[in-house]
Amino acid sequence: MTHFNLAASVDYFFNFFLMKGVLVTIGLTVAGVVGGLILGMGIALMRMSSNPVLSGFARFYIWFFRGTPLLIQLVVIYSGLPQLGIKFDVITCALVGLILNEAAYLAEIVRSGFMAVSAGQREAAWALSLSRWVTFRRITLPQAFRLMIPPLGNSINSLLKATSLASVISVEEIMRRSDMLMQEHFQILEVYAAATAYYLILTSVWDVAQRRLEKHFGRSSATRSRRSNATAPPTQAGLEARA
Amino acid sequence: MATDIDDVQGQPRKGEVAAVRMEAVYKYYGEFTALNEIDLKVASGEKIVICGPSGSGKSTLIRCINHIEKHDQGLIYVNGTELDDQRKNIDAIRRDTGMVFQSFNLFPHMTTLENCILAPMTVNGMTKQEAKDIAMHFLTKVRIPEQAEKFPGQLSGGQQQRVAIARALCMRPKIMLFDEPTSALDPEMVKEVLETMKKLAEEGMTMLCVTHEMGFAREVADRIVFMNEGKIVEQAAPENFFNHPASERARTFLEQILH
To answer: If phi over 0 gives left and psi between -120 and 50 gives alpha, with beta otherwise, what is residue A137?
Structure first.
């Protein structure tokens, strides 16, 4: 049999069973980003702390989770931890694994974003007697966030695809449900073509969203004072404004 | 301009609190002594120019006055408030002082107007309208009200520095600290910033300026403070300092800078 049944592939694309898997993929990604950002922010703050215990722990955390495959982390959480009497349902396992892993990457992104905001910005805020909180909220965070968007976008793109690994621990997202359809109908290419299409649509939608975000937050970054510009890589929007 | 030596030395008159008083102030960076036994009194309304070779501690000195840098030893009083570790004293001193930086340090993600109204609103609790009125008043004073809606990146260096001055003035400081305000500017923009500073001086603002602009120093300063290796080597009225520098170090410095 050397043909590709396009009609069947289109049918799989609009298959309700697979669509539900798409929602699970989206849910895992969103939860992974939100959870990963919150935890990652905490890890980044610890990493920047002058307390050696906190920064040491953060260093270890980042080293550990970036240095091991997500697949092993998921399998250990799902199949390994019950051996120690720690047991979660499968969705929780996937979420814990994805968030722990994502946080390690996001922590480094958050940290480099904050480090790239020049010390002069904080000094100017202090000289105006702004409180620490206002300085963080209105001065440091927005500038750091603008610098974080490009690497953050890439990380979210990776995470979206990495959720497919959760299929190994039987989370019924796009990949797992494609496997299930495939085993039922043996139309391998047709099923995976539909799954591939969904991944491409999701990553493309995110691409557009990311570009919008960059444009929105980069609107003021045309040319900047010498010193504060030195550490800030120009964003796409910044380059456009420059031209 | 005051020529009487007591006035020149900034001795506060009876009952008058000095704007800035530093007593035996030391600051270290590791082994390096950035400030070495600094004693300085600045009377209210006085204009001081601090000069000296690079690395002599000029910037460190004025950055210690509003606690951007923390001094390690000695006493600093600003308008009678002691600068210690207490938050409320630090805050009070920062409210009394405005600072202008070499690299402007405008907030690049905010418009000129937003730069100016942030502190009056969040620190002084003004309404947006009140803060805007004050901001426009000072932006007019530095002669760039038409740039209010622009972002710093769209302004020239000279304009950015004038916005930075207006932003500081919006907090109604009693003392203005200038940390090499024209050193990062292209030569043709130096003048507009110095003019703005002169105007401020004429209105009686207490000013401490670290600058290499000796023309400005001659014209505006009540007193020149010359520093070298973290120490105040000499202080004198401009005409005395430029015509008869007391120390050998100041003489060589002036030869180099005036050619």
So the answer is: alpha
